[in-house]
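Figure 3 (text version): structure tokens given as input.
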């Protein structure tokens, strides 16, 4: 499995206006693009990928989990994905609850989510000044990559990630948008996996 966790610093935790994703929804457009880049390839879905979002623009925080192996009727465009997240946020259950095939939400703070993820994945933090991903790609087993939205990670969150991360990894010295980082990460891992096959 490959996983991604994207921190949505301002992303709202309640149903939002689908016509104002970048504004009143707190850059929900970034979250939707990250889901699209994590899960979709040309005419297909990556079934071995999960993406988690932590929506921090309300109290309490809400986590969203989208599983490539389970989704049905999701299209890669922002509005379609936003509609499914909006529906998921109508439920306020504390534990993971499914709102559509492959889409789950739960009330969770950052520590709780990371503590759950370390049971399943090896955590890698994506940051411009990390070690080159190309140098370690052959060692990655069940990786989950943590990245921020346009605001990055707060100092407190970064401390928690660094406590659990195997490594801090860089894609290059250029600061990319979050969804671009997901695409580049897939590209680096795909290249390696196809070379050895
Ligand atoms: N101003 C924000 C900051 O200083 O953190 C920029 C955030 S950037 C748009 C979004 C996220 O993508 C970052 O938090 C980081 O996790 C990741 N990122 C961006 N460029 C990267 C790179 N070259 N290598 C690794 N991660 C990168």
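Below: residues designed for each position.
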């Amino acid at each position: 499995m490959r996983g991604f966790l994207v921190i949505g610093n301002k992303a709202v935790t309640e149903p939002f206006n689908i016509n104002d994703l970048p504004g009143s929804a707190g850059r929900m457009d970034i979250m939707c693009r990250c889901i699209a880049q994590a899960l979709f390839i040309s005419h297909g879905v990556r079934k071995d990928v999960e993406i988690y979002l932590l929506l921090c623009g309300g109290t309490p925080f809400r986590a969203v989990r989208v599983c490539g192996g389970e989704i049905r009727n999701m299209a890669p465009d922002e509005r379609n994905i936003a509609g499914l997240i909006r529906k998921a946020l109508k439920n306020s259950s504390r534990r993971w609850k499914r709102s559509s095939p492959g889409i789950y939400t739960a009330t969770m703070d950052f520590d709780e989510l990371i503590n759950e993820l370390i049971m399943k994945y090896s955590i890698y933090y994506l940051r411009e000044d990390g070690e080159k991903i190309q140098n370690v790609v052959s060692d990655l087993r069940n990786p989950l990559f943590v990245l921020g939205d346009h605001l990055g990670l707060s100092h407190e969150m970064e401390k928690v990630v660094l406590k659990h991360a195997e490594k801090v990894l860089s894609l290059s010295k250029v600061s990319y948008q979050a969804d671009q980082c997901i695409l580049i990460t897939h590209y680096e891992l795909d290249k390696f996996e196809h070379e050895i096959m």
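Residues 2-196 form a domain with the Alpha/beta knot fold (CATH 3.40.1280.10).
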